[in-house]
Amino acid sequence: MTPRRPLAPWATTALAAALCATLAGPWTPAHAAVSADEAAQLRTQLTPMGAERAANADGSIPAWTGQPTAGAGLGADGRRADPFAAEKPLLSITAKNQAAHAARLSEGVKALLQKYPNTFRLDVYRTHRTAIAPQWVYDNTLRNATGASLVEGGAGLQPKGAYGGVPFPIPKTGEEVMWNHKLAWRGASWYWEFFGYQLSADGRWVLAGDTANDTQMPYYNQNGADKFNGEYWLVRSLTRGPSLRAGEAIVGRLHLEESKSASWVYLTGQRRVRKLPNNCCDTPTPFSAGITTFDEVEVYQGRSDRFDWKLVGKKELYVPYNGNRLMTPAKAEEVLGARHLNPDHVRWELHRVWVVEATLKPGQRHTTPKSRYYVDEDSWQALLAERYDANGQLARVPFGIPAVMGDVPATAVVTWGVYDLTSGASYINGLVNERRAAYRPMPAYKDVTFTPDAMAGEGVR
């Protein structure tokens, strides 16, 4: 096991037990579960999800209470309000004063401040630890702590013995933290409608997709452990605009055995469904006009066997959080700034994050040989990242903006994107401003919803 250790110097500067029998292949234990004594911390020093309960030294990060956030549900109009709308920023960080706050800034944020000194800023608000989950998720997380491990699979390490909760609430390795991110609690089934925009290199925002998404995490079927087959994330996405792309659709099924993950796309011009030959890693995603890669969806997604993963430690960092503020403007254009999101509508807070570094293994290929990820300790979702090119230069800054949703209940990423520092192009997905279904919890979908046959039968053009 890789022991926890303090942050390296650069960090301060700079989808059950039943699963085990269903998956094929030899099982070689790689990382073991923690002891019962250590897991008991989830009832005392740690939250039920594995974060530190206590406040930080100066109280700027408060203690976790586990209480729901008032005013954070889905309104009758299908929109979500901002429960903290009355709050004012505690401070604003710009290129001019960033040096004074450098210890709490990621290298990617520093680079954005320098690249866009006249327009990019961080408005930092009071910290609210809003991430909660149902009690049954807490109960499963406790069981996972002593029953889950990472084992060698067909595409790298994968969880064994985990179901319905955070798989590794007391992580010892970088791989465990990143699986916590991929299996983070976001609800079990939901529907939402949103826009995705691409920013061209010459500074024009272009609508890339007006999309309706059905999403389901079978891993979080409350009573489905005995039926879980390893597919942890199912998604069906229907494109309604722009007109050139209306009627296109994509279906994805992500598997713990990552070599079994698959995606299919329906193209209106061909009137047929095609399986995507390479739906992982540094392959550009079709819905983003090729600006983002498959493994940049929601900051990080997909197979991880190309990299060595190092758990660097924890850090107090300014991150986008409780981002309901971004949902309140009536038009998406209001939240799109000159070359980035309009900072008037992005809320930043101080939170503790796990820092994980990914380095390309010898003999492997990837357009990003080195990356660094910042994973929220409360929600287990990656909120910021930095990706370095083959020359060692910081090239891309993925980000995720979580919203607090009391009806789920969860604090989960809704808006995400990537800023390309080299070309100036960007992609932002999950803007719900002009739609009336902002992450609506749904009853469990039938599995057939997420099949290529169903998608073919619904072809519009």
From TrEMBL:
Keywords of the record: Signal
CDD domains to which the protein is assigned, alphabetical: LolA_like (cd16329)
Signal peptide: 1-32
InterPro entries: DUF1329
Protein name: DUF1329 domain-containing protein
Native source species: Ideonella livida
